């Protein structure tokens, strides 16, 4: 599996696609034209195309606050 340029790990890719698939199952409109009706595949296509925005939040540890 080749990751899109803006995603740093397979784990993050799966998390983003899974969340988007849940949105599609809840009634969100697809951002790409697809022949398939499967939300998971559509979500993967959208993430690979860079159409799903996401933000990486840095968590500070207690040691960094000092």
Could you walk me through the main structural features you see in this protein, from its secondary elements to its overall organization?
This protein is mainly alpha-helical and 66 residues long. The chain has one domain (1-52): Eukaryotic RPB6 RNA polymerase subunit. It has helices at residues 10-25, 39-48. α1 (10-25) packs across α2 (39-48). The longest helix is centred in the first third of the chain and has 16 residues, at 10-25.
Summarize the SSE layout with pairings.
Blueprint (H helix, E strand, L loop, with lengths): L9 H16 L13 H10 L18
Helix pairs in contact: 1-2
Q: Count up the helices.
A: 2
Tell me the CATH architecture: Alpha-Beta Complex
What structural class do the secondary elements suggest?
mainly alpha
Beta-strand residue percentage: under 5%
Q: Name the overall outline.
A: elongated
Q: What about the largest sheet?
A: none
CATH topology: Eukaryotic RPB6 RNA polymerase subunit
